[in-house]
Amino acid sequence: MDSSVSRDMRALPPRGHNVALRIVSWNVQGLDEPWRWLAASDADVALLQEARHPPDDVAGRVQLDPSTVWHTDGRRRSWCAVIAGLSPRAQLRFLPTTTLAEERAGSIALSRAGTMAIAELDLLNDTSQETRLTLVSWYGTWERAPGGKPIFADASVHRLLSDIAPLVCSSAGHRIIAAGDLNIMRGYGENGSRYWGARYDSVFRRAMGMGIPYVGPELPHGEAAAVRPAELPTDSTTVPTYRVRFKNPETATRQLDFVFASQPLHERLSTFALNSKESWGPSDHCRLVIDLLKSDA
Known about the structure:
Mean pLDDT: 92
Radius of gyration: 18 Å
Largest sheet: 6 strands, mixed
Order of helices and strands: HEHEHEEEEEEEEHEHEEEEEE
Distance between the termini: 43 Å
Number of strands: 17
Low-confidence stretches: none
Helix content: 10-25%
Strand content: 25-35%
Number of helices: 5
Oligomer: single chain
């Protein structure tokens, strides 16, 4: 998509006066153009997956972790999960990560380097007291069974939950927002498979048990699939976030991108999938908008 794209497509929904922090979660497919969309938006923070280093015309306008290696371990993946500060409202402190094999004090050990980025920031609430937030961008990598099939990502997501455990050592006392492309589904399995539906459900149940339950997006905060797939349960509230063929909107049938958050934040969070034909964007995944509303406490 060239730079002549309409700013209306780049624009996010109107930002209310009560929004303390606006976050965008997006699998950017290793492309440059999403960086330009983000830089032109009114978002404060971007939680990105499959990100490569921003192009020169954007790099000087975003805050990045200087230690980012822009690589994910395993098969050749020249991209990674990153967090980018987009406005003065988001002065990020990036938490150091390392691999399990190189674990050291003061860092978060990751099962697979490149699948998670973590940052903290402080916000002043309505009583001029600081609220410290921990933001996580995470990505569920595909893995293969012996012989090459099937491929699956739930094992990677369980590793992500294990990796985040040091930040969630109780059911309360934390303020975490974690979002990204997990390459799993919610409430059902591919082609109606009960087996895979149960495996995916174990991820959401585990996250809830840890104290960071799923928070969105779901209907009506996003559009339903243009062509309802047979595999989708009739009571599903999922919103498609991935297009198999980018130029064909009707191939957007599955939600692969999700937002999780500490329970005390749920009443302050609004999530929305920008998955309409007009607002989708230049990646095969759409943008998730996460607004943290102001609080009196």
